[in-house]
Amino acid sequence: MRKILIFMALTIFSAHANSATCIAQANEKKLRSHPQEYFMKKCEEDAKKTCEALAKKKKLAGSAKHAFERKCVADAVGR
Q1: Distance CA 26, CA 40 (A)
Q2: Could you tell me the sign of the dihedral formed by the alpha carbons of 43, 49, 54, 60, in that order?
Q3: Among 20, 28, 13, which residue's Cα sits nearest to residue 47?
Q4: Tens digit of pLDDT for each residue in 8-49?
Q5: Number of H helices, E strands in the chain
Q6: Are 48 and 73 in contact (CB under 8 A)?
Q7: How far apart are CA 25 and CA 35, in angstroms?
Q8: How many Cβ atoms are within 10 Å of 12's Cβ, its own excluded?
Q9: Contact 42/24 with Cβ under 8 angstroms?
Q10: d(CA 71, CA 73)
Q11: What does DSSP assign to residue 78?
């Protein structure tokens, strides 16, 4: 059980470490105003889809799924 939890934690952190947050990407691209709003909305939608797929892959349900998805999206967006 302990090995599984360690593996899951490493998987989550490595997945997020490889990709920059939406806010960092928008700043890097020097987006402002409407282009920034559009980019952030699209990036957040993509993050939601990815996090939902991860939760499904991990076979999470109920409040555990909701909490995981909320944290995953917040980390991806950079909040």
Answers
A1: 7
A2: positive
A3: 20
A4: 555 555 444 446 899 999 999 998 999 999 999 999 999 999
A5: 4, 0
A6: yes
A7: 12
A8: 16
A9: no
A10: 6
A11: T
The amino acid that residue 74 corresponds to is A
Beta-carbon contacts of residue 60 (< 8 Å; ≥ 6 apart): 68
Return the amino acid letter for 45. Answer: E
Global model pTM greater than 0.85: no
51 — pLDDT class (breaks 50, 70, 90): very high
Amino acid type, 50: T
**Domain extents in the chain:** 2-77
Both tokens of 36, joined, read 């920034």
- Residue 74, token pair as written in the block: 């917040």
Single out the residue of 66, 44, 45, 47 nearest to residue 55, CA to CA. Answer: 66
